[in-house]
Amino acid sequence: MIRLELAAGPGALRTVEAREGAVRLGRSPDCELVVDALHVSGVHATVTQATDGWVLRDLQSTNGTRVLRGPDRLDVGERPARELLLADGDVLELGDADHPIPVRVALGADEETARIVEVRNVGEVASVEAQATADRAILQKLYEATKGISGALELDAVIDAIAAQVFGFLPRATHVTVALREEDDDPPGRVAVRYVPVGTRVRGGGASSEPVPITRSVFKKVVAERSAVLAADAARDVGQTASIMGARILSTIGVPLWHGDEIVGVLQVDNRASSGVFKAGDLDLVLVLSQAASSAFVHARLFQRVKVAEERQRKENTYLKGRERSRREGGPIGDSPAMHSVFKQLKKVVDTRVTVLIEGETGTGKELIAS
Q: How far apart are CA 280 and CA 290, in angstroms?
C-alpha cells in the first residue's frame, strides 16, 4: 500500500492511497492526486506498482521531478527511463526547482500473501508433462489443444483458443484472464515492469466487459519465482486480500507465460461459482498448456507488430505517391518556342528507360524536368 500526501501549496494535506495499479500526479483534474500549481504539468508523473515495489516515473514534465531521500536530492529526469524505485519517507518535489510542490510518500505492508497449496516451477514442466501425458486420452487431448492454440494469430483469437481449452480440461474453471507485459519503446534501465490484463473469457459467456483483477497475492509469486501456483479456497485461505475478495474468487491458478528467461505474461484461471476447488492435477494441466500459450502470445505480438508496420508503410506510400502525383501535375509550363522545343524532346524519352543528361544553369528547372 502507498499513501501520497501533498505537504504544502494549494490543496495541502490532500492525500491518496492505493494498493495496486498506478497513481497519476499533475494539474489535470483526471489525475488521482491533483496538484493545483501552474509550474506542474497536466499529467506530471505516475507512481506505479511493480514487482519490486512502487516506482515513480516522470512523464517528460516541463519543470522536472526530484526526490528528497535523507540528505540526497535525486533528479528523476536524469535517471534511466526517468524512473526511480520509491522508499518509505521519500518526499517528491514536483515542478519548479526553486519552489517545488512537496509530496510525502508512506509505504505500508501489503496484506498477508496466500497460503499456497501447490507450486510448480517452469523448470519442472518436462517432468510434469511426462506425468500428465501418461494417460493416452489426456495425451491426445493435449495434442489437439496445442494445435488449436498454435493455429491462432490474432491476440483475441489466442485468448479465445486458450480459454476454450482450459474450460474443456477444467470443469470447475469459470474465468480465464490473461495479463501481458506492457510493451513500449523506452530506453533500457526501466524499473517498473507492468503486466496489463488484456482479456478475460467467461465460461458460456465469451469475452467479459467487467474489470477483472489479477489476484495480487498469487500474481507476485508467479512472476518472482517463475512458478505456476495453486491457491485453493482463495476467499478463506489466501488472507482475504482485496483483489480476491472483490472478485469473489473461490479458487485460483496462476501460471507464467514465458519466452526464454523473460516472463511475458500471466495466465489466471478462476473458480468463482462452482463448488469444490482446483486440484494439483488441474495445475499440472494448465502448466502444460501454458507452453503452447506462451509461444502463441509471443507470435501474436510479433504478428501485431508486423501488421502495424505494414499499415504504417502503406500510409507512407499513399502519402508519397500523392505528393509525387501533385509534383507531376504541377509540371513545367510555357508557350515560348524554346519551351515547345524542350517539350518535344521530352516526349521522345519520357516513356523510355534511356538515361538522359539534363544541363542548365541554377534555377532553370532541371529537377522539375527530371521528375
A: 15
